[in-house]
Amino acid sequence: xxxxxxxxxxxxxxxxxxxxxxxxxxxxxxxxxxxTPSGGERRVPAFWRGEDRxxxxxxxxxxxxxxxxxxxxxxxALGVHGQEGSVDVLPYDGGNELLRRGALQRRPGHGTAxxxxxxxxxxxxxxxxxxxxxxxxxxxxxxxxxxxxELTADRVDKGFTLVQIVAGLYxxxxxxxxxxxxxxxxxxxxxxxxxxxxxxxSPHAGPPGPPGESRALVDMARPNVVWWxxxxxxxxxxVDSGLVPCVVACWGxxxxxxxxxxxxxxxxxxxARWGSYPVVWCVxxxxxxRFYRTGTEWSQADVDAGERSQRAAWTRVxxxxxxxxxxxxxxxxxxxxxxHLMVDDPDALDVNMLQTGHWGMxxxxxxxxxxxxxxxxxxxxxxxxxxxxxxxxxxxxxxxxQRLLFYSTLxxxxxxxxxxxxxxxxxxxxxxxxxxxxxxxxxDTTWREAAALPGGAHVGVGLRLLxxxxxxxxxxxxxxxxxxxxxxxxxAPYAGGIEGEVRVMFLPAIAGEALFEGxxxxxxxxxxxxxxASAPAxxxxxQGERARLAALYAGGMPPVLGIAxxxxxxxxxxxxxxxxxxxxGTVVPDQEGSWRPPTPPIFQDWxxxxxxxxxxxx
Length: 618
What we know:
- By secondary structure, the protein is α/β, with parallel strands linked by helices.
- The strands form five sheets. An eight-stranded parallel β-sheet has the order 15-14-13-10-9-18-17-16.
- It has helices at about 25, 95-100, 145-160, 225-240, 255-260, 260-275, 300-325, 360-375, 400-410, 445-450, 455-465, 510-525, 545-555, and strands at about 1-5, 10-15, 30-35, 40-45, 45-50, 55-60, 65-70, 85-90, 130-135, 160-170, 190, 220-225, 245-250, 280, 330, 350-355, 385, 415-420, 475, 495-500, 500-505, 570-575, 580-585, 605-610.
- α9 (about 400-410) runs parallel beside α11 and α12 crosses α13.
- It has 13 helices and 24 strands.
């Protein structure tokens, strides 16, 4: 057998094993041993397709002839064992940037200070991570093809580059919940072959056993092949549209419910199905979480033991994935707070995901503090804000929060940002998603309504602005602004960029309160405030930090600091909602190297950019 395929594109071939087994999925393993043109060797697992059928999916960035020989764990499987063939990988220079540049690569130099702070494509191009959250996007509620393709096109148009999506074992519902199905039922079958929904899981008593012990509270015997066939269409469509699928295997409590062996088998199946696509692997979501109705009577010692057990188990699964994935896709894990605390070996992660809270403006400080702490860890790992303040959740967290989250994250040293919208993450339909197992609903916003929320467009505008420059070289620069966010005040301006080349400064409208105070002070000083020129410069009602900021803003916008006469900047205001620029001309600093920008034309969020003539990317 000989096939041809374009570079980075997936091809597949199938065989019938030719041996009768009671449970082929459990009793037989099949793989293609591939020799690449450069002489390397890959062991590419095949996935069970039902009955005695097995399929291999393969892709490569390396152009040339790739030879393979099939191996089966049972040499009676003569229909597959020993079969040989080749795949001729041809150059690709088409319009799909993801495929043209190649899949994202694992970080080189794990555990060293030289490790890059970002992920890159196979051709070395840095990948800008702007994710969207479709946890339940593989369910029927996000209908194929109409709704799914509509949402994909909308996200591509807005500038997203990646989608976080769960492979069938979901959060916020019982295992075998009807809301987790597609047209074929649930992702896994029970031992009797049934993949249909069932009644909610009954609470179980007692803390977990020793690390690695399988409690098998949920019957998961084998994949429901038809469910995965339907899911294939959706995953492939993301890639065809230029979006990276960040595949989350399951929610963390499945380790408690199904056990480590099933989680390994689940991951093996995912790798065989989707590893040939340019994906990112997320080992589990909220990895140390318990199922909603378990552990309610555990002692604190039991809770701690449970977390240690799950952390150790997910670490072993992560290393198993790292050792067995022939395509070496990047690996991360989704946390309740810090990803590096979800496993015992954080240096093996390619990305450190954070979850920073859903509490609106009050979460901005938590987000900024966590980003700052994670970015400063040694050895470094690229940091992603992977979940925080879904737009519309709790009837709050709307576009102003999304803009402040986005810029405060990326100007504080983080590598990437994942947006989310309430109603979209659940793929909710009319009437809402319904109650979580804890008994409370998150709301009744539909996924279409959520997809139209303006914050999703605004973060896309933000990424387009950053992509004008070498964004992967940006570092935080609080010293550039006279008024910059600090531990004491996180709802404030943020600055970052490349010294001597470009400065990007986010000026949230909420900081305009100080500007208003400064305007009023100026009016009184000029005698226009009714109390005459003898009025105090700082009213007594203004105290402490508020008085300091009012004085700072009394002369207009606070100055940009530390600007040398060379290299010579020009400046512009950028509208973070519409993406339009307002030219401010040449920056002329004073003798101290500071420059006070003009007052923006509208009281709203703005981005102030200072750039040199050659700062922009070609």
